Structure prediction request, 343 residues.
Amino acid sequence: MEKKDLDWGSLGFEYRVTDKRYVSNYKDGAWDEGTLTSDDTITLSEDAGVLHYSQAVFEGLKAYTTQDGRTVCFRPDLNAERMVDSAKRLEMPPFPADRFIKAVEEVVKANEAWVPPFGSGASLYVRPVMFATGKVIGVKPADEYQFRIFVTPVGPYFKGGAKPIVVKISDFDRAAPHGTGNIKAGLNYAMSLHPLVIAHDEGFAENIFLDAKTRTKLEETGGANIILIDREGTLVTPKSDSILPSITKRSILYVAQETLGMKVVEREIPISELHEGKFVEGGLCGTAAVISPLGIINDHGKEIKFESGMEKMGPVLQKLYDTLTGMQSGAIEAPAGWIHEIK
Ligand code: PLP
Ligand code: COI
Prediction:
C-alpha cells in the first residue's frame, strides 16, 4: 500500500479530510450496523439536541507505523471504556466497547495510506465523536444519536515540538466539583476556549486550571494532564475527581513504576509547592500532547521556572518520553495488551 504524498515531518496538529470515516446511527433504541463512508459532512435538524443542550462526547487516540511496517493503535480499549463513561454521564446511549474497537480497526485500515511512516515524528490521530441528532426543545436527552470516527494525520500539538512551553495559571475554572471534568465532553472544551484565547493573546501556550473549590491545587490544562518530577526523582501527579483520567498518564505511571523503577505518587498538589521549588521538571501529557515539557508556569506574574530550563525536556521526562513513544511505535516491548495491531 502506497502512503500519501505528504511532508510528514512538517505536519502540525490540524484536521485534513481523509478517505473514509465510520458512521453508526442510534434510533428506536438501537445502534444500526454502521458503515464506512466517504462523506465527511453531516446534515442535522435545526432542533438536533447537540446544537441546544450540548450532548456531545468524543475521544482521541493515535495509530502508528512500527519499524517493521505494521500499523498499530495504542490502548483503544481504554478509549472505548472512557467513551462509555462519558456517554452515560450525559444520558447518551453508550456505543458498545467491542464495536468501538472494531470501528477503529475498520477506519484505520481504510485510511492506511494516511498513517505516517515510521520515524516521521507524525501519527494518525483517530477522533471518535458521538452527538445527539434527535430533536429536543424542552430540556431532556435526545432519542437519536450519531457515532462517528474519522482520522487525520498529525504532528506535534504544540508549536516547536518537544521544546518547553510557557503556560499560565488561569483565572477561570474548568470543571466544578461533582461536575463533568472527568469525562470527555465537548462542553468542557467550550468552557476553556475563552481562557485559552486570553492565554494565547498574552503569549502563553496553555492554561493550567486550579481546583474550582479552593483555587489552590493543580488540576490540568485544557487538553492534557500534568506530571511533575520532584527533587528525589519521584513522579508526582494531581489526584482529583474533576480531571480527565488520561490514558497517557495512566500508561506513564505504569511505565515509570514497573519499567523504570521510579516512585510514583498521585496526590493533591498545592500550587504553593511549585513556588517553593519542590519540582525540577514538569510536563503535560495526553494523546495529542504526548509529553510536552513545561518551562515556566506564570502564576499571576510570579514565574515558576523549572530547573530543566527552556531549551529541552529534563532528563527524567525525556526517559519517560523515550520509553512511552518507543512502546507506542513498537521499538520497545510494551506491556501485554497495550499495542493493538490493525490487520
Ligand atoms: N485532559 C484533557 C482535558 C484532555 O483533553 C486530554 C486529551 O485527551 C487529556 C487530559 C489526556 O488524555 P489522554 O491521555 O487519554 O489522551
Ligand atoms: C487528545 O489528546 O486526544 C485530546 O483530545 C486533547 C485535545 C487538546 C486535542
In short: Helices lie at 49-53, 76-89, 97-110, 186-201, 247-259, 271-275, 315-328.
